[in-house]
Design goal:
Helices cover 48% and strands 11% of the residues. By secondary structure, it is of the alpha/beta class. It has a four-stranded mixed beta sheet with strand order 6-5-8-7. Helix 5 packs across helix 7. The radius of gyration is 17 Å and the shape is globular. It starts with a helix and ends with a helix. Bound molecules: fe (ii) ion.
Length: 248
C-alpha cells in the first residue's frame, strides 16, 4: 500500500476547507500547547516568542488552516495542505519555490504525546508558523527553495539536510545564551530536553551540516549551534551563486 492511500484513509474529514476533529484531538492540542509553552519558553529564541505573541494560536482547540494562513499572508506566503504525511524533499522545497508552507491536518495520538517521528500539525503550527509572521523567516525558506532548485538531484538530500539541522533541529546563540531555533525542538518534549545537554552541541557551519545525516525516526544525538543567522544566509547565497555558475 502506498503512503498516499494510508494518508487518505486515516486523515480527518474536511468540509468546506474546515477539518472536523475528535474531542481527543482537541484535548491533545490543549495538553501539548500548555506543556510545550511552559517547557520551551525559557529556552526558545526571542524571535519565536515575538512571533507566537503575534500569531495567537488557539490554546484549547486544534487550529484551522483557513484561520491561521491569513495571519502570515503579509509575507507573501500561505499555508497549504500537505499532500502526504512525510513529504519528499522535492515536494517540500517545491512548495517553498511557490511561497507555500505545507502543513498537516492530523495530530499525534495520546500515546505519542512526548515524541513522534512524523511531522504532525502540532509540529507544523506550534514549531514553525510563529516564525512565519516575519518576512525574515520566509525569506530564508525562499533561499532554501532556490538553493534546492539549482542543486543537481544527486545532491538534493545533502542540501535538504542543511534545512534539517537549522530550521528543524538547530540552536542559535542569542545574547551569549544558546536558544532553540528548530521547530522539531520546540514541538517535542523529549527532543527539547535532549537538546539542553550542552555536551551534545556542535558549532554550525554550512560544510558541517551539508549532507549530515538526519535522525528522522529517532531523537538526535547532536545539535548544531548557529552563531548568527547572517552566517546561514551568506552561506546559502554563496552556495546558490556557486551552483548557478556551474550550470552556465
Ligand atoms: Fe518541520
Amino acid at each position: 500500500m502506498d503512503t498516499t492511500t494510508i494518508f487518505e484513509s486515516t486523515a480527518p474529514r474536511t468540509f468546506n476547507g474546515r477539518t472536523r476533529y475528535a474531542e481527543e484531538d482537541h484535548d491533545t492540542w490543549e495538553t501539548l500547547h500548555k506543556r510545550q509553552t511552559a517547557l520551551v519558553w525559557p529556552h526558545v529564541c526571542n524571535w519565536y516568542k515575538e512571533g507566537a505573541k503575534l500569531l495567537e494560536l488557539p490554546k484549547h482547540a486544534v487550529p484551522q488552516l483557513l484561520d491561521i494562513s491569513p495571519r502570515i499572508e503579509h509575507t507573501g506566503w500561505k499555508l497549504v495542505p500537505a499532500e502526504e504525511r512525510y513529504l519528499s524533499d522535492q515536494l517540500w522545497f517545491g512548495h517553498f519555490q511557490k511561497k507555500e508552507f505545507p502543513v498537516t491536518n492530523y495530530i499525534r495520538k495520546p500515546q505519542d504525546i512526548d515524541f513522534t517521528p512524523e511531522p504532525d500539525m502540532f509540529h507544523d503550527y506550534f514549531g514553525h508558523v510563529p516564525f512565519m509572521v516575519f518576512p525574515f523567516y520566509t525569506e530564508f525558506a525562499e533561499l532554501f527553495g532556490e538553493a534546492f532548485r539549482v542543486t543537481p538531484p544527486v545532491d538534493h538530500q545533502k542540501l535538504a539536510n542543511v534545512w534539517w539541522h537549522t530550521f528543524e533541529f538547530g540552536l542559535i546563540r542569542e545574547n551569549g545564551e544558546v536558544k532553540f531555533l528548530g521547530a522539531g525542538l520546540i514541538s517535542s518534549k523529549e527532543e527539547c530536553l535532549q537538546a539542553l545537554d550542552t555536551t551534545r552541541h556542535l558549532p554550525f557551519s554550512f560544510a558541517a551540516v551539508y549532507g549530515r545525516p538526519r535522525a528522522d525516526k529517532n531523537i538526535h544525538s547532536e545539535y548544531f549551534v548557529i552563531e548568527s543567522l547572517s552566517d546561514v544566509r551568506e552561506a546559502l547565497e554563496t552556495y546558490i551563486k556557486h551552483r548557478t555558475s556551474e550550470q552556465q
